Structures are given as structure tokens and as C-alpha cells.
């Protein structure tokens, strides 16, 4: 039996973010080692336009209540989440005992989403400044350059962890079907997210 995990709007938002951020990373690395600068530069800066336009389109045309509810869920870290964050390193050393209750997203997923969002803001702010600098509109700033590079490194590390969980890690990679079709196996959901009640959305948003 399958249960609905993501609405079509949530799937669309996820893949807009995934495609544009992966493009930013690939073109950023090419700029860093100076491969085909003139061809790569417009794609690098253009990917933030694709990200913004894509998210705006999904928000205007899609299920805004479901998007808002999921964004709220991802940024809310409660007491169980803090206990989960203390439990996870012990569990990795096989000394964890039972995990605290896990709802629709575990605290690692929430922390990852919060950090990626924050670093996307700093990489975009510093990137816009660098773009203005390249066009001679503002002065050079080593501080902004360093902020761009450090934010980029943080995003690459976080996205690499996310991709490892989604594609390689045997314990978690079965979630991949969910972010493609929107539906997951009910037994998988009960095992990995035991405190999540797919049939009782906390926000009253049905996910048909
Ligand atoms: C995941 C997001 C991003 C990553 C990983 C990333 C990475 C990088 C890297 C590695 C460089 C080369 C730095 C160097 O040569 O020292 C760079 C340069 C640059 N990035 Fe980004 N970046 C990202 C997002 C953005 C965004 C959103 C913008 C625009 C709003 C932007 C604008 C620029 C500009 C203007 C340059 C300078 C290119 C030049 O000097 O020729 N970046 N980025
Ligand atoms: C590159 C930028 C990406 C970002 C910023 C991103 C971000 C997110 C966020 C915030 C979530 C919801 C919370 C979570 O489950 O972690 C999510 C879910 C998910 N993402 Fe991504 N994602 C990206 C790329 C990808 C890619 C390329 C894949 C697969 C190849 C992927 C696979 C998944 C899966 C399987 C889920 C659902 C997890 C679950 O149901 O528990 N993501 N992503």
C-alpha cells in the first residue's frame, strides 16, 4: 500500500531547487578552475533567475497551502528534534538506543533544509555583488568574495550529504521514489517516520 508524501506542487518546487542549485554548483566549480569562463558565467548567474522564476511560478499556479505547511514543518525544530540531534551521533556509533519520535521529516532533514536555505541567501547576496563588480558597478571586495566561496563550500557539503542519503545509503535511498512520484510505501513510512500520520495532515491540507 502507498501513501501520499508530497503534492505535485511540492515535487515541482523540489525539482526547481534541485536543477537550479546543481547548475549553480557545476558552473561555480567550472568558474573556480577557470574552464570556459565566458560560456559558463551567464549560466551560473542565470540559474538564480531560473530558481526565483520557477519557485514563483509553482507558488502562483500550485497548492500554496501545502507549500507553506511543508516549509513551516521543515523550519520547526521542537524538543523531540533536539533529542533526535543528540541521539543521531550516538546511533552512528551503535550506542543510541531507540530514537525519539520522528514525524514527517527527521531533525537531520530539517537542519539540512534550514542550513541550505540560509547559505542560498548568502551565496545569492554575495553573488549579486560579484556580478555588479564584474560589470564595474561596485568596487572589489575580498570579504564578499570569501563569503561567496565559503557559502558555496557549505552548500556543496550539505547537498553532497543529501545526495548520498537519496541515492547511495541503503537505509534511506528508498525515499527516492517518493520525491519522483509523490507516494511512498506505507510500511517504509511507518518504519522511518513512525510519528507521521499521512492520513491526518497537521495543517488540514489533504495531499491527493
Ligand atoms: C550553489 C550556489 C553557488 C555556488 C556553489 C557558487 C560557486 C562559485 C564559485 C566556486 C565561484 C568562483 C570563485 C573564484 O573564482 O574564486 C563563483 C563565482 C561567481 N559567482 Fe557563484 N556560486 C553559487 C551561486 C551564485 C549565485 C546565486 C550568483 C548570482 C546571483 C553567483 C554569482 C557569481 C559571480 C558573479 C561570480 C564571479 C565570476 C567572476 O569573477 O568571473 N553565484 N561562484
Ligand atoms: C541540489 C539541491 C537540492 C536541494 C537543496 C534539495 C533539498 C531538499 C529538501 C529541503 C527536501 C525536504 C527535506 C528532506 O527530505 O531532506 C528534499 C527532499 C528530498 N530530496 Fe532533495 N534537494 C536537492 C536535490 C536532490 C536530488 C538531486 C535528489 C535525488 C537525486 C534529491 C532527493 C530527495 C529525496 C529522495 C527527498 C525526499 C526525502 C523523504 O521523503 O524523506 N534531492 N530535498
How is this structure best summarized?
With 208 residues, this protein is mostly helical. The chain has eight helices and two strands; from the N terminus they run βαααααααβα. Helix content is 69%, strand content 3%.
Q: In terms of structural class, how would the helical and strand content be classed? A: mainly alpha
Low-confidence stretches: none
Largest sheet: 2 strands, antiparallel
| Residue-averaged pLDDT | 94
Main-sheet strand order equals 1-2
| Percent helix | 55-70%
Question: What's the CATH topology label?
Answer: Fumarate Reductase Cytochrome B subunit
Number of helices: 8
CATH architecture name: Up-down Bundle
SSE pattern? EHHHHHHHEH
* Total count of domains: 1
- Shape, per Cα inertia axes: globular
**Considering the protein shown, what is the CATH homologous superfamily?**
Transmembrane di-heme cytochromes, Chain C
Q: Based on DSSP secondary structure assignment, what is the total number of beta strands?
A: 2
Beta content comes to under 5%
Bound molecules: protoporphyrin IX containing FE
How widely separated are the two ends? 15 Å
CATH class: Mainly Alpha
Write down the Rg.
19 Å
Amino acid at each position: 500500500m502507498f501513501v501520499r508524501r508530497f503534492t505535485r506542487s511540492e515535487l515541482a518546487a523540489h525539482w526547481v531547487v534541485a536543477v537550479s542549485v546543481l547548475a549553480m554548483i557545476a558552473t561555480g566549480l567550472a568558474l573556480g578552475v577557470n574552464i570556459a569562463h565566458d560560456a559558463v558565467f551567464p549560466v551560473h548567474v542565470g540559474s538564480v533567475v531560473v530558481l526565483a522564476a520557477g519557485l514563483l511560478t509553482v507558488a502562483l499556479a500550485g497548492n500554496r497551502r501545502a507549500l507553506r505547511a511543508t516549509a513551516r514543518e521543515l523550519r520547526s525544530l521542537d524538543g523531540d528534534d533536539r533529542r533526535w540531534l543528540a541521539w543521531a551521533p550516538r546511533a552512528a556509533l551503535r550506542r543510541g538506543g531507540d530514537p525519539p519520535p520522528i514525524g514527517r521529516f527527521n531533525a537531520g532533514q530539517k537542519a539540512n533544509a534550514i542550513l541550505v536555505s540560509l547559505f542560498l541567501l548568502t551565496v545569492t547576496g554575495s553573488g549579486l555583488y560579484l556580478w555588479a563588480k564584474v560589470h564595474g558597478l561596485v568596487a572589489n571586495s575580498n570579504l564578499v568574495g570569501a563569503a561567496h566561496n565559503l557559502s558555496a563550500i557549505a552548500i556543496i557539503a550539505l547537498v553532497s550529504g543529501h545526495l548520498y542519503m537519496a541515492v547511495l545509503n541503503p537505509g534511506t535511498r528508498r525515499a527516492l521514489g517518493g520525491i519522483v512520484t509523490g507516494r511512498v510505501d506505507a510500511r517504509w513510512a511507518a518504519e522511518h517516520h513512525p510519528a507521521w500520520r499521512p492520513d491526518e495532515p497537521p495543517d488540514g491540507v489533504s495531499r491527493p
